[in-house]
């Protein structure tokens, strides 16, 4: 007879499969992804409470509820004021609403001065590189407004957005300012033996991430050239949202982040029991689950000062790359998909193959030389 722990783990496994599959198969779930993920998070967190892990809090608690309520509102602090994804989405949405005509004129002027291929390359590369300073959230908002205004077909806009979010997600991994994952990693490694500071991530990941961002810029131009097919007659325009739509989008983002907190905490027993004990090379590939889970939660469970430098590098690269493959994997994806109306299927069509290619390429870079005795 199965124990309660085993039954709960089986239930969590089933929920993970449903989260991975249903958004691509069921239209009503695809169009209401925030509500679906929130419901799955509530069930997962309830099931996790049936699993006892010594020294670990599982299931519902006041701290988890508080974290879920506050996380969307407090990603970082600016001049002592809490700043979160919801405030940024709301404030910049209102700024764009009130300065609509100036924004439209600026983007039209940019399109007149530069070729679309150069605009796309610079958009992907520059936002990827600066996301570690201005944050992935702000970089994603800037991305959406520019891409929405480009005179290109819908398919090309989707592909540009997906490639750009991959670039932003990678670039955000270079400093503690980029995203919650990096803040957690630097905090956990701030003591001996690494004494991680502001440049810790850049020193270890920059040699991999910066070339990858440049490559993504080239890939974005290639995909645009293939999808655009020379249609230069489309008008450059920025669709002006209503204030009601801006408020609804901010509310959906709030619910989405709450859902990710519940999912991350709900799947904690699976992470602690099965994932963290996997060897470095296996952990790299297992971290592909960050395509549907909050990568900050995975990083909090995996990253530890006892890990070797290579283990830390490989785990982080796996998390950062896989986070761009599907919409729930990273905050920029959530913002871009919500504002541009990109479905889970549309995102995956570009994000999954591109993410897998990057995963395979970096697996060879990170592990093959050491296996051959070259590193």
Number of strands: 2
Low-confidence stretches: 230-236
Overall mean pLDDT: 83
Strand order, largest beta sheet: 1-2
**Helix segment tally:** 18
Blueprint of the fold:
Elements: H1 4-25, H2 27-31, H3 33-48, H4 62-70, E1 76-78, E2 81-83, H5 85-98, H6 100-113, H7 116-134, H8 136-149, H9 154-171, H10 180-188, H11 200-228, H12 243-266, H13 268-275, H14 280-286, H15 295-302, H16 309-322, H17 331-340, H18 344-371
Antiparallel strand pairs: 1-2
Helix pairs in contact: 1-3, 3-12, 4-12, 5-8, 5-12, 7-8, 7-9, 7-11, 8-9, 8-17, 9-11, 9-17, 9-18, 10-15, 12-17, 13-15, 14-16, 15-16, 16-18
What would you say this structure looks like, in words?
A two-stranded antiparallel sheet has the order 1-2. The chain contains 18 helices and two strands. It is globular and about 65 Å long. It has helices at residues 4-25, 27-31, 33-48, 62-70, 85-98, 100-113, 116-134, 136-149, 154-171, 180-188, 200-228, 243-266, 268-275, 280-286, 295-302, 309-322, 331-340, 344-371; strands at residues 76-78, 81-83. The termini are far apart. A hairpin with a 2-residue loop joins β1 and β2. Mean pLDDT is 83; it is low at 230-236. The longest helix is centred in the middle third of the chain and has 29 residues, at 200-228. With 375 residues, the protein is mainly alpha-helical. The chain has one domain (4-371). α5 (85-98) runs antiparallel to α12 and α15 (295-302) packs antiparallel against α16 (309-322).
């Amino acid at each position: 007879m199965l124990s309660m722990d085993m039954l709960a783990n089986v239930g969590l496994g089933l929920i993970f499969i449903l989260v991975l599959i249903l958004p691509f198969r069921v239209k009503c779930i695809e169009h209401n992804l925030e509500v679906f993920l929130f419901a799955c998070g509530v069930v997962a967190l309830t099931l996790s409470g049936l699993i006892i892990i010594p020294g670990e809090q599982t299931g519902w608690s006041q701290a988890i509820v508080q974290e879920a309520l506050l996380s969307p509102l407090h990603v970082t602090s600016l001049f002592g004021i809490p700043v979160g994804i919801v405030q940024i989405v709301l404030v910049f949405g209102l700024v764009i609403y009130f300065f609509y005509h100036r924004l439209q004129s600026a983007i039209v002027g940019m399109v007149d001065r530069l070729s679309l291929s150069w605009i796309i390359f610079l958009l992907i590369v520059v936002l990827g590189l600066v996301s570690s300073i201005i944050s992935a959230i702000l970089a994603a908002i800037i991305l959406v407004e520019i891409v929405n205004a480009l005179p290109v077909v819908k398919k090309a806009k989707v592909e540009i957005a997906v490639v750009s979010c991959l670039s932003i997600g990678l670039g955000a991994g270079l400093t503690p300012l980029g995203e919650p994952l990096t803040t957690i990693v630097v905090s956990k490694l701030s003591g001996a033996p690494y004494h991680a500071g502001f440049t810790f991530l850049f020193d270890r990941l920059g040699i991999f991430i910066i070339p990858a961002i440049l490559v993504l810029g080239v890939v974005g131009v290639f995909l645009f050239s293939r999808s655009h097919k020379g249609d230069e007659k489309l008008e450059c325009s920025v669709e002006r949202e209503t204030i009601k739509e801006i408020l609804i989008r901010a509310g959906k983002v709030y619910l989405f982040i709450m859902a990710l907190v519940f999912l991350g905490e709900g799947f904690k027993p699976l992470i602690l029991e099965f994932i963290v004990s996997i060897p470095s090379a296996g952990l790299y590939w297992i971290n592909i689950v960050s395509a549907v889970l909050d990568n900050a939660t995975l990083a909090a469970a995996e990253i530890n000062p006892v890990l070797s430098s290579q283990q830390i590098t490989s785990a982080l690269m796996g998390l950062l790359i896989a986070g761009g493959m599907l919409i729930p994997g990273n905050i920029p994806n959530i913002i871009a998909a919500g504002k541009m109306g990109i479905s889970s299927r549309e995102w995956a069509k570009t994000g999954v193959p591109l993410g897998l290619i990057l995963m395979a390429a970096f697996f060879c870079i990170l592990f093959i030389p050491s296996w051959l005795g070259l590193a």
